[in-house]
Amino acid sequence: MNRRTHPSPVSHRWRVRAALAALSLATVGATALPSPALAGTGGSTLTSLASTSTKAATTQQKVADAYAAYVQSRQQVEALSAHTQRLNANAKAAAAIADRLRATVADDHGGIIQSLGDWLSPGQSDLDKAAEAADNAEVARTLADAAQAALNAAIDRTEQDRLTWEQAQQHQDRLEATWSAKRVVADAIDHAQFQAAYDATGHQDHRNRAALRAWTHYLHSLGAAAVVPPAAKQLEDPHHLDKPLEPLRNTSYRAVPGVAQARLRDGRAVTVLPRETVRAVSEAFHRLGLSTVPDGIDATTYACGGLLANAWGSSATLPADATGQWQDLHAVPRSTVQPGDVVVLGGQHDGLAQTAVYVGAQRIIVADPATGVAGVQPLPAHFLGVRRATLASPTDNPQPPSGGVCGPATPIPVVDGSGPLSLPMAAGSYRISAGFGDGGGLWSSGAHTGQDFAAPIGTPVAAAGPGTVTVEHPSWAGNLVRIDHGGGVETLYAHLSRVDVTTGQTIEAGDPVGLVGDLGNTTGPHLHFEVRLDGIPVDPTQVVDVPEVPRPTYTNGELPADALCAATPGGVQQLRCDAAVAFRLMGAQFEADNGAPLCITDSYRSRAGQERVHVLKPNLTATPGTSVHGWGLAVDLCGGIESFDTAEHAWMMTHGPAYGWRHPSWAEPGGSRPEPWHFEYEG
To answer: pLDDT of 56-84, one tens digit each?
Structure first.
């Protein structure tokens, strides 16, 4: 009988190996093909750039490609993982079969008989089966290990593809953030540019432009950091900031509220301001160098808070005046001052001055209270404090100091004086400086035409007498107030830091005129006070009683020319200056009430003049050297006043004392020498 032939164990084992290998390779190869359904699913997770530029499109495509590669790698891992699990299961099963057959073949009781039976019986023997099972188990384990190695490599590739995708996405996010930040920066830079009406020149123009360049550089740095300025609310708490922002710390390493910082690619820090602050600072630059105050605002009002209130606009509701900005805004330490902060100028002694916006590099934008022109100035060494408009309003800020160009209105103290005009400043609030007639190159005429009262900026100035106001702004004076008192008498108040009157206004003696300043041609803060008669300056200390400058005493009839002033236009009649001013003021009122000028026949008499008149009228004149005319304090009047029973004489008797002019008792009816025409000045 012919024995059936079977494949040899060796050839069968190789066929099994080949079949398993082919199956494994086919499975692995199949997993390497991307799934059309999954390859494009990353598009829904991509953030498109607002820009359609080539760079943005290229970056977006890189993100899409990286995501597709990651999805493909992930699918391959999933397929290899399932295949590896199957191969591991097969290897485990093959090993179990091999172990069972090996145990059968190795049985001591049946091993020889089984071997003899395998030789005599046709077909595959148990020994062959055991050998083949062991071989199959080895092949299965080899394939499982190969699949595991392929899976591990696929996992590594997937992780690398994920990182590549994340990096591409981060690059896209940064590109988009950079584009957004640069667009905000471009808008801020454009808004900060000077207007067509910009009129600054010289050093002021240089300061303005240097500060604008620095602000522009800062904005470009902000764009380079890919940071869009956040809302002020997001920066209130420096301990809870969104990335990539980090706290800005002071020298004590404490986090500063209201601002933050970000990092440039080289690691350098750039300060991040709230978007409201960026907008306000740019608006402040936009208002530089305008010779006309925007919106028709008064110059002093604009300087005393109006500039900042308008610069912030709707970004933050700032109080309209310096007092409110000092008291209602959040105080921050001077050491942490940042661009956009409100710098309150002035001092406890000098009072409240303008409010300014800090623009960095020890510079501020501040408006001139005399002209309203805004300009960049150095941050002064001394000022009242710093306020941050974007932080919550406080409840415990102190009251601002009194006085100053922007201080709260303070009552002008009553100024007493026995002359026709009062002292324009309260006693003790000033010190005497340059006097009338002082020579030097500081004055265009070569001589000083007034009396200077040195005092801190913001010291109150009062009207020396009643009259009508004219406000001017000559270059030498800055702010100049003229008061026409009538009768050709005029007083001038120069260099004021604040003017409290308007042209055409009628005021009384002691009414507020303004505050001491240092505007115009000055070497320090002071009031330049002038008295003019018919436009000609006279020594104010000869008219107003100034305690620090007592009036000189002279011998009767020997008054020098500078102690006498014109009592009438043209100077025909002369009196001691205070008496002359009082006479002019009285004459103006007399003419207004009676329709005719006050008539005068005689005034100051020198010693020689007294002697001459005494020769002519020995019974009507005093002994030479004793006459009140010799002191420049007596007048003889006419125009009806020379008679006791006239309306003109009655007017003088009623109104003369208000101007210091009285009718002496000896000259009254029934007196030792009745003279209705004679009146004497008693101050």
So the answer is: 677 778 878 878 887 888 888 888 888 88
- CA count, 13 A, side-chain hemisphere, 267: 0
Tell me the pLDDT tens digit for each residue of 493-533: 999 999 999 999 999 999 999 999 999 888 899 999 999 99
DSSP 8-class letter at 439:
B
The phi, psi pair for 676, rounded to 5°, reads -60, -25
- The per-residue pLDDT for 38 is 33
Instruction: Determine which helix (DSSP H) or strand (DSSP E) holds 599, and give its type and residue range.
Output: strand 599-602
Contact 511, 460 (CB under 8 A): no
Yes or no: say if 389 and 221 are a contact pair by the CB < 8 Å rule: no
d(CA 594, CA 581): 20
What is the distance between the alpha carbons of residues 652 and 661, in angstroms, rounded to a whole number? 8
CA–CA separation, 258 and 256 (whole Å): 7
Q: Quick check: 581 and 533 in contact, CB under 8 A? A: yes
**How far apart, in whole angstroms, are the C-alpha atoms of residue 529 and residue 527?**
6
pLDDT tens-place string over residues 425-473: 998 899 999 899 887 667 777 788 999 999 999 999 999 999 999 999 9
- d(CA 493, CA 507) in angstroms, rounded, equals 14
CB within 8 A of 388, min separation 6: which ones? Answer: 258, 329, 330, 331, 332, 338, 340, 341, 342
Q: Which of 246, 517, 643 is nearest to 259 (CA)?
A: 246
> CA-CA distance, 423 to 441, in Å (whole number)?
27
Q: What is residue 87's three-state secondary structure?
A: helix
- What's CA 633's distance to the chain center, in Å? 59
Return the residue matching tokens 């359904």: 37
- For residue 416, the one-letter residue type is D
Task: Give the number of C-alpha atoms closer than 13 A to the C-alpha of residue 349, restricted to the C-beta side.
Answer: 4
Residue 664, amino acid: P
Between the CA of residue 126 and those of 20, 64, 102, what are the distances in Å? 23, 60, 9
Contacts of 420 (CB under 8 A, 6+ apart): 465, 543, 578, 581, 582, 585, 659, 660
CB atoms within 10 A of CB 503: 12
Spatial contact of 316 and 352, defined as CB atoms under 8 Å apart: no
- Which residue shows structure tokens 């009553």? 414
CA–CA dist 491, 487 (Å, integer) = 12
Which whole-number Å values give the CA distances from 311 to 200, 277, 285, 303, 534, in the listed order? Answer: 19, 10, 9, 12, 46
Q: What is the pTM of this model?
A: 0.47
Rounded Cα–Cα distance for residues 46 and 48 (Å): 6
| Residue 383: both structure tokens together | 């000022």
Q: Which contiguous run of DSSP H or E holds residue 369? A: none
Residue 524: count of CB within 10 angstroms of its CB: 12
Distance from the first to the final alpha carbon of the chain? 169
Cβ atoms of residues 423 and 379 within 8 Å: no
Smallest CA-to-CA distance from 82 within 126, 30, 138 is with 30
Torsion, CA 156, CA 157, CA 161, CA 167, rounded to 10:
50
pLDDT band at 351 (very low <50, low <70, confident <90, very high): confident
Query: Binning pLDDT at 50, 70 and 90, where does residue 137 land?
Result: confident
pLDDT of residue 65: 83
Q: What is the Cα–Cα distance from 680 to 628, expressed in whole angstroms?
A: 7
User: How far is C-alpha 653 from the geometric centre of its chain's CA atoms?
Assistant: 62
Identify residue 91 by its one-letter amino acid code.
A
Task: Find residue 358's DSSP bridge partners.
Answer: 364
Q: Which residue has the tokens 């108040």?
A: 493
